[in-house]
Each structure stands twice: as structure tokens, then as C-alpha cells.
Design a protein that fits this description.
Length: about 950
């Protein structure tokens, strides 16, 4: 495919952004005059909450601040201390108690491990003040104050007069000042309070929490005063009707109460796409009654309106022009798309065509500013990155982004799930009669009014993972009321739970390979590697689509090179703690190796999660947690991208999109480990949710060796591929007798330009035998000691569980990466991040491996205990390391060698003897280690006292 030149693409993005900015302001700028309020404001903090009683709105504030911005971005607030009144649950209680954190609890060196740390912090009321001069030309016109995003409760006074309060977390705060701003000079005073007050959305809600964006205080985005005609267009909502090729525009007109009046209204839809049919205006005379008139106008969209979806995100602009009897004209313009996001059975559809949600979360993670961007360019970049990783969907976890995000998603063809700013759990509940119950309805109403015309806005829920005795009833009613109110969106009760028949779709954590609390009992940790399972049994009981909630959560080691990137209001002091811990344990030089090795394992786990979803017939989609890191909740490094949406060096978007894309070849491998006397029998299928069916495709497959050379291959029958998944393409049948050398083979299945790969491991069915004079034992008994004293070779391979807890036996070792993190999950297993080794080490010559975990290490990790290397010798360099949790950063080994007396001792934390006939990996590894010990390459450099080895085991 021909590539667009980079500079040209950048220019296109620039002009799109300019057009989006113009359209954003158009609702206020058309026929309006504006006073830009950005710049310097007077300012004062009110930590004792005495400003209202002290009538600060009548006084001149003494400090200054620049807006748009936050207190933190202006270096306002207090230094971080142990008394900082954070917003968010803190489960990392060890920080406040353990001696190892004592130095980070000292004034001047406060470093917290549970989230990014702001340079300054303030929670409470703060006051902002600006003097404005209203020109004589504004006399007799409507006037509004527009604050694009305030965080969060905003109370306004004009001069000495109170105007009112607004508290939306997800939409602009707009104040009608028509009666308050006569021509002349006035003082605007705004009090912003970022404390949880009447309604508690939940302290971990990403709309307010310090876990991600931070609980900031300020005003960002557009900030201005604007005029409008007294008789004006208040709101335009557009409802596409694809079947009848038309839209219904609901136009709300406001006017002063009084006698009925006449006006004319004109609608015209246009598109910048030259392929779009040129439409004619619709004009209508209307009668205005009362102070608000709602008109429903049907507007034909031509013979073949252009549709909006992820492949062709065609947009229209609807211009609404109101002319009153006095000839005063008011115009509003809104973009929209002709799209129908719906369901058929258990799958989602876009414009009647099946689609599959490949989503990630956005949890308000913006380390540079501590608040979300309001410019289109920033969001365009985020969606471009997501698309490069094969995604088409984003869920905004317990918050709602600014308008710029919707505009960028409209342009990108991204499907969005919005949430009404709440995670009512862990200190909050929903449905129990608290003020939050009414707030959720009000907030969702504001969100739909503000953003409902955007075709990218497809799904709505109250928020995340609710609690409360009556939450099921409340949320069921929430869904039913919205289904009746607005057909443009799909609705579910909440992200995570409860599942109810009334919802349009399910959001549930049931279909994923690692559940919260599953530990080592999960599929990926308890069952030998395969790719032939799916979630059919899980979803069989439901009649509508299921989206798997927060799949993945696979961790990677911190990238300490990131620390320098945190040059804004949030600093990675948590990374500094972890880096120091690694340095204290003498492993600072291994930081990058730990990152890359654990990253390869993380990517393997995500591939397994995503493919299981794609394999499931009739599945709706998945929402990753996450494509990029989540910096809070104890530091959850779950992204293949960092918080700045940059890759970390171990997987690219091109590689990731092999298993996450519109079209993904899939192989149902019954296992990943084979002997060369076996036959491959692998069913091949495809998940295809592209723009159209694929015609006359010939799927092909190859097996290649470690050098990339193709050793086996073939084709499957030519076929047409319809839209959907679990589409069977045939079966690979291949004998492995020609594979002589042990090692990895890469299975590649190609369907046109789409390829996917899987790593298989094949070992000889028979191994050479001989007397190598190596004593293989599971305990260091007198017999073993006698061999060592005589200068012999001993391979010690203790049974799993034999290592003392304080010597590494208490490490919860498993195959997969850490799930979420150990701090927030109360130490859920596994607590390790795979292995690190030198693949060229001669001990591994007959057990070929990469430097990181792959499927052939599943057996070892499932039958092993970690061993603390510093309990043996301070300078001991293992053959195979285990990567420990970054919080503890212990030097752990699986395989190491040393001299004991005159003899050579190789210690394996892996039990290589139990059930060996069922464990080809263990048999092959044992063979490789024995072969090494009889070679001249086996020359242990470290002498260890026998008591040290004895002291390892129970």
C-alpha cells in the first residue's frame, strides 16, 4: 500500500484540528461577540473555607494565577507531606509503617509509591477573580460565561451578586449573565471547590482521583464571555435515520416569556467529502410560545447519504439558522454522522454490519498537566496510536473527556463508551437514596446534550463497578429510562457489573484468562499452554452482546528511563523508589534487561487474552486494561505503552496488530510443546470484521526455525470469508519427524495481507543415554556431600516447596506476569515477571531459549521455587534469573552453579524429576544441564560454603 508522506499527513492533521477548533467555538461565535478571559486572574486559596462568610467576592484577591490552567500548573498549593489529604484509596499501607520506606517519609524527601506525585497539592476552595468591561454594543443581548472544564464545583458572583453554582465533571459550566452584565466594568469572582461534598462519586473515580489525572483545582480549555440574540437557538440534537435516509433535528429555541412570536428556521447539511450529494436547505415558518420552544424537523439526506464508521468516518455539518420577525439572525452549527450503532443477537453492528469492539481504557492519565487536554491535536495523536495497535474502541473509565476527544474520535472512526463521572465503590454507593443518585441522572443528561451528536459517542453507562444494596434496581431503571429517551446510544448498567437482561449489552469480567483473585488457578497459570479455549460456555446464558471488562492487567518492569519524561506537574517519585530498591540489591545494571524480558512476557499474555476473545463465536468485544500504563493504585504498569502513549521497545504496533485487528488469523493449538514423533493437527479459523467480505482467499501456513528459514508449509482451500468470527478455514496436518534439533518453531498463518504467528517448541522423542557420573538428587544428603568432597558433579533439583520462605520459598512464582500489581491486590500471585537469561549460555545449549519467558518455560515456572541469590553468595550470577516484583526487587534465581568443596554443584529451583514422562520440557532441560556439567564449559567461578546450600532448604 502506498504511504502518505509524513509532512503531508501532519498538514492534514493540522487543518483538521483548525476546522475542529472553529466548529467548537462556532456555537458561541456565530453572530456572537466574545471576550476572551484567558490570561492573568487574581487568585486566593481558602484553606479554612471562610471566603463565602468573609464575602471575598466583594474584595480584591491579592495573588495571581494564569488561566486556562490549574493551581498545580501555576505552582500553587502546598508541598507534599505525610498529611497531604489525598483523594483516592491507599492500600499501600506499608509505606506509612515499614522501616524500608522511612527515608521517603522525611520532609524534603517525600516520595509516595502508590501514584504519580504532584509538585504541589491543594484540596479545598480557591478563588479566581477577573475584571471585565462590557461594551455598549452588548446592550440588550444575551450574555453567557463559558468555562470549558472546571474542576470542579464552580460558584459565580458578578460584582456582589451571587449567580449560581454548577458541578458537572464532564461538561462545560455555562452561566447565563444576561441580567447581570450591563455595559460597563464588572468583577467576576469564581470559587472552585475540589472537595467531595454533597454527592460522592467515589474517591477512586478517575474524574476526581489522584490515582490518575489528580484532583486538580482550576479551569482549562475555552474560557470566555459571549453574546447571543435574546431569541436564539439553545440546542440542536440530531437523530440519524439510516433506513429512511433522513435525520430528525430537535431544535430548542429560547426567548423571553411573553406574547407568541413568529420566526423562520432553515436547515442545511453539508459535507466536505466531494462524493457527498449536495443537499438543499429546508425552511419552515414556526410559532414561538413561552420561553422555550422545541421543534422536531425531518431533513432528507439525499438518495445515498455517506455513512460513518471506523473505515470511512464520513461527517456532515448541520447548519441551523433562525430568523426572527425583527430580522435578527442566530446560527448554530453541529457536526454529525449517519450511523447506527446497534446489536443483532450477541454481536454489535455498525450500520447493519457486524463489528467487534477492540478497546482500551482511558483513565484520565495526563502526567504533564494533571488534567485532560482540550485541543484536538492531542486526542488525534492518541487515537492514531490506538489504531496503529489494531484498536477501534475506547472506554472512558468513570469520567467524560472534553469535546476535543469526541471531535478527534469522529475523525478517526473510533467507537466510544462514556461514563457519568462515577465509580461508586470503596466509600460510595449508588441507588441508596444519596445525592449521587440524582447527580448521575443530571450528569448523564448534560453529557448527552453536550456530545450526543458526535457519531463516535456510541455507548453510555452510569460508571464503573458499583456498590450499594439497591444498585441493581437503580441501574436497571437508569438503563430503561435512557433507552426510551435517546435511541442513538447503547446502554448498560455499569462497567463490570451487574449483568441484567434490560441492558443493551453486558460488561463483565467473566470472560478473561486471569480473574481478580484467581492467582495461580487461572487458565494461563494452571493449565498447560494452548490456544484452543474460548468463552462460549461463559456467554451462552446471555442473549445480547458481551464485552469483557478490563482484560489483561499484565504488568511489566518499570522503565526508569521514563523518569526524565515527567517534566510537568506530576513526577514519577514512585519510580525513584523502585529504582533505588533495585540499586540497593545490586541489580541496577539489569533494569533495562528486566524491562525487555518482562515486556516480552507481558505481550505474550496480552496476545493470549485477546485471541481468546476473538476465538469466541458471537462475542461482542473486549476492553483492555490497558494499552498504556496506569500510574496509580499502587503503580499498575499494565501497558505495552507508557503513560505518554509511547512504546517501550519490546513490541510495536505492527507486531501487536497481528493479533489485534479487523482481520486476525487464529490457530486453535491443543498445546504449544511437542515431541518430534507427533503430528500437528491444528484447526485454523479467522475473525474478520473488516469493511466487507473477503473474496477467493487462499490461506497459507508456514513453520520457520530460529533463523527464519521456512522448514514446512502449505495452503488451505480457497474460500470466501464473511464478516464474523469462528470462521473455520481448515486444519493443518503435519508430521514433525523431520524436526531433528530441539527448539522453537514459528507457525505463521496468512490470509491475504493479514498474518498471525505462534511459537511452538519441538523436542526429540528420544534422547541419548549414558553414564555421565552426575549425581541428580532432590536433597543435599550425605551421599551428595560425599560426591562433592571427592570433586564430583551434583545436580540438586529440590521438590517444589522445599526452599525456606526467607530464602525465596515465599515468592509466589508463576508463569504469567504480575496481574495489576501486588500492592492493590494484596499480593495476588504470581509476584514475578518471568525469567531472564543469556540464551547463549552453554548450560542451555540443548534447551534453546530466548532471553525471556516463552511457552517452553511454563512447565519450569509451574514446578519451581525461587531462590534468593544473596542467601547463597553476594556476587552469584545465575544461569537463569527470576524477575521479582519491582516493589521488593529481590535477586532471585532458578538455576545457578557454584563450587562446593572440590565439587561442582548446579542448583535447580525447578523440580526436574517429578512426573518427568509427562513433561518433555523438564526432560529436555535436564538433558541440557547434564550435558553441560560433563563439558569443559562448566567451570563455576564462585565458591560457596556447604552450609549456605543446606540453609536454603527446609
Amino acid at each position: 500500500m502506498r504511504k502518505t508522506p509524513k509532512n503531508y499527513r501532519l498538514n492534514i492533521v493540522f487543518w483538521i484540528c483548525q476546522l475542529c477548533i472553529l466548529s467548537f467555538v462556532s456555537a458561541y461565535a456565530q453572530n456572537n461577540e466574545k471576550i476572551d478571559l484567558s490570561g492573568e486572574w487574581a487568585f486566593g486559596i481558602d484553606p479554612q473555607d471562610e471566603g463565602v462568610q468573609g464575602e471575598w467576592f466583594t474584595k480584591k484577591l491579592k495573588d495571581n494565577i494564569r488561566l486556562p490552567g490549574s493551581m498545580a500548573s501555576n505552582d500553587k498549593g502546598y508541598d507534599i507531606s505525610l498529611e497531604t489529604p489525598w483523594t483516592g484509596s491507599i492500600f499501600d499501607s506499608a509505606y506509612f509503617k515499614n522501616p524500608e520506606y522511612a527515608k521517603y517519609r522525611q520532609p524534603g524527601n517525600i516520595k509516595v509509591p502508590f501514584w504519580l506525585q504532584p509538585v504541589k497539592y491543594y484540596k479545598g476552595p480557591a478563588w479566581y477573580q477577573k475584571t471585565v468591561t462590557i461594551p455598549n454594543t452588548w446592550k440588550g443581548k444575551g450574555i453567557e460565561l463559558f468555562i470549558e472544564r472546571s474542576h470542579w464545583e464552580t460558584t459565580l458572583w458578578v460584582d456582589n451578586k451571587p449567580i449560581g453554582m454548577q458541578n458537572s465533571l464532564g461538561t462545560p459550566h455555562i452561566f447565563d449573565l444576561t441580567e447581570s452584565l450591563a455595559p460597563g466594568t464588572h468583577q467576576l469572582t469564581i470559587r472552585i471547590d475540589n472537595r467531595v461534598k454533597e454527592f460522592n462519586v467515589g474517591q477512586n473515580s478517575h474524574s476526581i482521583s489522584d490515582h490518575t489525572q489528580s484532583n486538580w483545582n482550576g479551569m482549562v480549555g475555552q474560557l470566555f464571555l459571549a453574546t447571543r440574540p435574546v431569541v436564539s437557538i439553545q440546542e440542536v440534537q440530531v437523530y440519524p435515520d439510516l433506513q429512511n435516509k433522513q435525520i430528525t433535528a430537535k431544535v430548542t429555541i429560547r426567548r423571553p416569556a411573553g406574547k407568541p412570536g413568529k420566526a423562520s428556521i432553515e436547515l442545511l447539511a453539508t459535507s466536505t467529502n466531494p462524493q457527498a450529494e449536495k443537499l438543499t436547505p429546508l425552511r419552515k415558518e414556526v410559532n414561538l410560545t413561552g420561553d422555550s420552544t422545541v421543534l422536531e424537523l425531518v431533513y432528507p439526506m439525499g438518495a445515498a447519504p455517506l455513512l460513518w464508521d471506523e473505515f470511512k468516518p464520513n461527517l456532515y455539518s448541520l447548519q441551523v439558522k433562525l430568523t426572527t420577525g425583527k430580522g435578527i439572525v442566530h446560527e448554530k452549527e453541529t457536526s454529525f454522522g449517519m450511523r447506527e450503532f446497534a446489536t443483532t443477537g450477541t454481536q454489535f453492528t455498525i450500520n447493519g454490519r457486524p463489528t467487534f469492539l477492540r478497546g482500551t481504557l482511558e483513565c484520565a492519565i495526563f502526567p504533564k498537566t494533571g488534567y485532560p487536554p482540550t485541543d484536538v491535536a492531542s486526542w488525534t495523536r492518541i487515537f492514531e496510536v490506538c489504531k496503529s495497535y489494531g484498536l477501534n474502541h475506547m472506554r472512558f473509565h468513570s469520567w467524560c473527556p472534553p469535546k476535543a476527544a469526541f471531535e478527534a474520535a469522529d475523525q478517526a472512526g473510533f467507537y466510544l463508551q462514556l461514563e457519568s463521572s462515577s465509580w461508586a465503590n470503596q466509600g460510595a454507593t449508588i441507588g441508596d437514596g444519596s445525592p449521587l443518585d440524582q447527580y448521575i441522572y443530571a450528569e448523564s443528561e448534560r453529557m448527552v446534550k453536550a456530545y450526543g451528536n458526535h457519531p463516535s459517542f456510541c455507548m453510555l453507562t452510569y460508571g464503573n463497578e458499583p456498590a450499594g444494596k439497591n444498585h441493581v434496581k437503580y441501574l436497571t431503571n437508569f438503563v430503561k429510562q435512557w433507552q426510551e429517551k435517546d435511541p442513538r446510544l447503547l446502554y448498560t448498567t455499569a462497567a463490570g457489573w451487574p449483568v441484567t437482561s434490560e441492558s443493551d449489552y453486558n460488561s463483565t469480567p467473566d470472560p478473561r484468562i486471569q480473574a481478580w483473585g484467581a492467582g495461580l488457578k487461572s487458565i494461563i497459570n494452571s493449565q498447560p499452554p494452548s490456544s484452543n479455549y474460548d468463552w462460549s460456555d461463559t456467554i451462552a446464558k446471555w442473549q445480547h452482546p458481551t464485552v469483557s471488562h478490563e482484560i489483561g492487567q499484565w504488568c511489566v518492569y518499570p522503565d526508569f528511563k521514563e523518569i526524565a519524561k515527567y517534566n510537568g506537574v506530576l513526577k514519577a517519585k514512585n519510580f525513584e523508589i523502585f529504582q533505588e530498591k533495585l540499586r540497593d540489591h545490586g541489580m541496577a545494571s539489569l533494569a533495562d534487561s528486566f524491562l525487555l524480558a518482562s515486556g516480552k512476557l507481558q505481550a505474550l499474555c496480552y496476545k493470549a487474552d485477546i485471541e481468546a476473545a476473538l476465538r469466541t463465536p458471537g462475542f461482542g468485544g473486549f476492553q483492555l486494561l490497558d494499552l498504556h500504563d496506569f500510574p496509580g493504585q499502587g503503580t499498575a504498569l499494565v501497558g505495552v505503552l507508557n503513560p505518554f502513549w509511547e512504546d517501550k521497545g519490546y513490541i510495536t504496533g505492527k507486531e501487536y496488530s497481528r493479533f489485534c485487528n479487523t482481520t486476525v488469523p487464529l490457530a486453535r493449538l491443543p498445546k504449544m510443546i511437542y515431541l518430534n514423533n507427533e503430528e500437528l493437527r491444528i484447526p485454523v479459523e479467522v475473525a474478520h470484521f473488516g469493511e466487507s467480505e473477503l473474496q477467493e482467499v487462499i490461506p497459507s501456513w508456514t513453520l520457520s526455525d530460529a533463523t527464519g528459514k521456512t522448514v514446512l508449509g502449505g495452503q488451505l482451500a480457497k474460500t470466501n470469508i464473511a464478516l464474523g468470527n469462528a470462521i473455520k478455514l481448515g486444519e493443518i496436518k503435519q508430521s514433525l519427524t523431520s524436526i531433528i534439533q530441539p527448539g522453537k518453531l514459528v507457525l505463521t498463518v496468512a490470509i491475504g495481507n493479514y498474518q498471525n504467528t505462534w511459537d511452538l517448541f519441538v523436542y526429540p522423542s528420544t534422547l541419548p543415554t549414558g553414564n555421565d557420573n552426575i549425581l541428580i538428587t532432590q536433597q543435599l544428603d550425605e551421599r551428595a556431600l560425599k560426591v562433592l568432597r571427592k570433586g564430583g558433579n551434583v545436580l540438586l533439583t529440590p521438590k517444589k516447596g522445599s526452599i525456606k520462605p526467607d530464602k525465596g520459598g515465599d515468592v509466589k512464582i508463576g508463569f504469567s506476569s504480575i496481574f495489576w500489581n501486588t500492592a492493590w491486590t494484596n499480593g495476588q500471585a504470581p509476584n514475578t515477571l518471568g525469567i531472564l537469561c543469556d540464551p547463549s549460555h552453554p548450560a542451555l545449549q540443548a534447551f534453546p531459549t530466548e532471553y525471556h519467558s516463552n511457552w517452553q518455560w511454563w512447565d519450569a515456572m509451574s514446578h519451581s521455587s525461587a531462590i534468593r541469590l544473596d542467601a547463597v553468595a553476594p556476587d552469584l550470577k545465575p544461569i537463569v534469573r527470576v524477575i521479582d516484583d519491582w516493589v521488593t526487587a529481590q535477586p532471585l534465581g532458578l538455576l545457578f552453579e557454584c563450587m562446593v568443596g572440590k565439587g561442582k554443584l548446579l542448583v535447580s529451583g525447578i523440580d526436574l524429576l517429578a512426573d518427568q514422562d509427562k513433561r518433555p520440557e523438564a526432560r529436555q532441560l535436564l538433558y541440557s544441564l547434564r550435558h553441560y556439567m560433563t563439558s569443559n564449559a562448566c567451570q563455576p567461578a564462585i565458591q560457596v560454603e556447604v552450609e549456605k546450600i543446606k540453609g536454603l532448604m527446609n
